Amino acid sequence: MRGLLSGISKQGSGIRTRRISSYDRTGGNRDCIRIEPGETAVIADMKGSGIVRHIWITFRSEDPFMRRNSIIRMYWDGERHPSVEAPLGDFFGQGWGEEYSFLSLPIAAAPKQGRALNCYFPMPFQEGARITIENESEAAFSSFYYYIDYEEHDSIPDDEARFHAWWNREQTEAHPAEGETEWGVVAPQGNNLSVLNNYLFADIAGKGHFVGLQYFVDNPGPMWYGEGDDMWLIDGESWPGSLHGTGTEDFFNSSWCPNELYQHPYFGYARIPDKLGWMGRTHCYRFFLEDPVYFEKSLHASIEHGHDNNLALDLCTVAYWYQTEPHRIFPPFPSKFLRENRPEITVRDVHRWRHEWRRSMGGSPLLWGNEIK
Asked: In this predicted model, what pLDDT tens digit does every residue of 153-167 receive, in sequence order?
């Protein structure tokens, strides 16, 4: 389904607008539900054919990490395995369990302070749809508010592509031979002629089109994290593939190692670090609403973590696409312990690095910090 505005100029013959929400069925003002620890709540169970047009969610919890400790899943047409599976915050464009404002055309985290989570991706179904929220926290959602705005249709074509989203995470490794370098600062760098050691953000079987990516990178060092090229292998083709990029910032439609907030409806940087160089957490995003990546049989999409895959990074992504069913079953979802953030690198850590460097240089009291053996 190409374009968020699909059908906006059509008359509504045979289309009925509906909403499922958390309103207070007693007529009172407690317009929310409670989701206990360990509980999976079904927030929407739609029958027949239709299209989900809008999802809005906000909540209250004593767990400050609830955005990563809860999981949103969506099932189309009675399927057993979800077509959408991601931590709640990551799906709506907030990484690391944090809350902050995020602006794009299909997904947004709106005021107050990014606590209103919105999605406008159209999501068609032919034989029912179900949306669930699993609470893996030790605390409850003391109040969970939601709207699911959708249309009832007489029918949806069987070959209409269904909406999918998949969360992945990997702590990447430094290059075994080159070490952890970039721009040849520490050691000469080699050439990468495959996708073998890249970070994988999509591995899709079926026919469809790719429409977006959230990219959350936690960088433990000050060096620029973004010399990695994006690489797309369509329908089983070999490297270098039909689409081959020139650098991470280029893929996210920016340039020259940016470190500034910028939010365009299609791409941008919703969170940046305020540390040494590019150390810390950066949230990049890119939506392919005007230029989707089409595939007939399969799509393998990945990106280098530094040129020639030489940087140790904590990478998390949410990929969004449409495809005809059946889809490839997602890998087992990581436990909440495997979704925890990596420890923050602090000023103390950097000072310890400096101390070890000073010792390696002979310990002169006059060492400044830029000396090279």
From this structure: 999 987 899 999 999
